[in-house]
Structures are given as structure tokens and as C-alpha cells.
Amino acid sequence: MKVCLLNDSFPPVIDGVVNVMMNYADYLMKDHDARVMVGTPAYPGADYSSYAYPVVAYPSLDTAAVTNGYRTGNPFSGKNVSRLADFAPDIIHSHCPASATVIARLLREVTNAPVVYTYHTKYDVDIKRYVKIKPLAEEGVQAMVSNIEACDDIWVVSKGAGESLRALGFKGEYLVMNNGVDFAKGRVADEQVIEATKEYDLPEGCPVYLYVGRMITYKGLPIILDALKKVKDAGQEYRMVFVGKGPDKEMLEERAKELGIWENCIFTGPIYDRDVLRAWNTRADLFLFPSTFDTNGLVVREAAACGLASVLIKDSCAAEGITDGRNGFVIDENADAMASLLITIGNDIAMLREVGSHAMDEIYLSWQDCVDAAYKRYQYVLEMKQRGVYDKRKKDASDYLVSLTAFSMEEQNKFRKVRKEWFHDFKETAIGMMENMQDVEKYLDEVKTNIADMHEEIWNGQNHGTV
Model-level pTM greater than 0.85? Predict the structure, then answer.
């Protein structure tokens, strides 16, 4: 099976969806002998030559300043779309509803391969955050939903994610397909933990709380800070470790200072070494994740892989599968609820370890199992495509626009190929002509030499009276 994976980010950018893409690529090749090609916006200086699969980086615009480091891809790069089409994918799988899905739809027109789409995160929140003009933001959200509805098989990463998509106006069917964790199951050895955390002030016997992710307010981080203020006022000691970067990092650091808890907090910045992250998840006593934004919360399962239990918000997507007090803790979405829980259980390390152990056994999901399920679904999608099920989908105006664009791009690609062949033939002909000219020049040189010799012989013969 040949699978084309598309997303609007890829290394050097690292986020949850990029992590998903890379694990899909690795396990599809490793366990299912699939061939994989990745399409992503180009990032200056990115080198993909060492990857086990080809990466097509199409032109992009520098929007990093307003999108927290992300670039905006140009999906109408005919040359690069043609490179993806030449791969002749059996399955096209998009992981972002913007340029990646536009390219997926263009590729479907050219290759007739079905398009799978995975809804990973609440993109509408980011659209409304970065597009300040409300009507434009609403148009952007509707364009995103229209793009998703145009795909053949829609996946969501949790039940809550599906409900979120419905709330945006999505009317089609979707399937819950869980994401996995690339952490090995089990706690890290003590010496590795010591090595990874030795630079930080972590007193023995002092509870360590951990957050890993984007430093942005809609992840519920103000709830953590306000709760920790109450915990400190109650006379309890702790260390709070924030791992990550984001647009609100400086503001959150200033807030910690204002609350008088700065000396209890550690802001490490982003950590890209997965082994170091495993060490932090092993060292911590509780993972704090009061986010109602996340549709899946991979970091919660990463924590569980290391035997670390999480504090989550009631009815959030991240809390799906969590039984309060057994394999995690569920609270109301406010600082008082979190503070009350931490004051009650924060010092009971043995109990936290037991709940963490249950989390490891009950909510951990490996990428191997998740990609295996995805591969089986790919096979089902191909069967549906062969039966013509997806051809019955009602088309809207955007479908006809995509068809026209794809036709235009394909004609341009044909012209480029003809021009390339013509130039190659012309080049070969020119080289041949040059080689022939060189032969002619050699022949003429020989003729000139012979004529000169004959002339000399005649001249000498005349002088001797023989001619």
C-alpha cells in the first residue's frame, strides 16, 4: 500500500500532530511494508534527506510571527502536487483542514485515490485567536468545515472531538480512531531521572507537579497558577515544572511572580529529547492538565506510560476513559477545585503511585496498535472506493473549483513534461550535431592536409617536368 501523509507542519516544527504523522509513517513501513510519502509546507533550512521516506516540501509563506512558529503552505504549487501525484498513492491521509486538505483534494482529482482526514484539534479556536475580524474568522471556520466534509473518511481522535466538530456545523459521519504513545511502557531508571533533572531544585520528599505542552492560556494554565497560590497559602511545599514554549510563556511567568509562587515554579522551555521527557514524567508525582481545548491529550497517555496519573477537567476530551480516583483525577474547571485536590492528596505519594500504575495499565495505548487499526481501516476505505460508495457524495461549489484547478495544474504538468522531453531531445540532437560537426571538421582538416600534400607534389612534379 502506498500512503501519502499530509500536514501543515513537520520538523523542524514539533507538536502533537507532527508526532502522530511521524509515528504513522514509521509503523506503516515497519509493520505493514507500506510505502510512504509526506507533503508539508517548506521550512527554511529543513533537511529531510535522512528520512526513510521522501518528504515533498511545497512553497510556504512566513506567518510564524502570528501563528506561533507555523508557516502557511501554498497548496497550488503545481510542480510539487505533481511530485505527490507521481507517487500514485493508494490512500491520501490529511491531518490538517487547511492547505494539506486542499492538496489532498487536488491529488484525489488526479489520482482517484480516496482521502482520509483526521480531526486532531480545535482549529477554530486558533482561527478566532489569529483572525481578529469576526466575519473573516467565521468564514475561515466554515471553509475549514467544508474542506473536511469533502473528504471520504473522517476520523476524530476522541468522542469529544467529534462533538466539537459537530458544533462547528459538520454534518457527515465520523469514526473515533485513537492516537497512541511513542513512550515505552514503564518507568525510567533512577540514574536516568537524576541525570535529566540534576540542574533543578527538587527537594527530596517535596511533591513535583508537571505540565508538558504549549504555553498558552487556553490550555487552562492560569487555573494551575491560581491553584498553586492557594496550595502555598495552605502551607504546603511543592515544585511545579512547566515544559514547553508558546506565545503566553512570558505572561505566565510574570503571573507566577505576581502570585508569589515563582520560587516554587520551574519553566524549562521546550524539551525535544524523548528520553529526557520520559525521565521528567517518571520524576513527577502528578501531571496537571486542566485543558478543555485538547481533543485527545497525548501528553496524558505519555504520563500514563511512565506510571504518572493526571488531574483533568470533568467532561473534557482528555478525561475520556478516566475513572476518578482509580486511573486519574477529575475536577471541575476552576482553581478552587484543583487546589482542594492538591491539598488533600499532594503529600500522599504512595497513593499517587498506585493511581499512576492503574493509568499505565488501563489508558496507555501504543502506536503500534493504533497504526495497525488505521491500516485495517485504510483497507476498508479502499474497498468502499472500489464499490463506488464515495462517488455518490453530493458535490458543492468548492468541489468543482478543485476539479478545475486540478485539471489546470495537470495540463501545466503535462506541458512541463513535454517541454522537458523536448528540451532533452533538443539537447541530445544538439550534442549529436556538435559531435557530427567535430567529425566534419576532422574530415575537412584531413582534406585540407591532403590537398596541401597534393599541391606540393604537383608543384614539385611541375618543377621536375614530370607533370
Answer: no
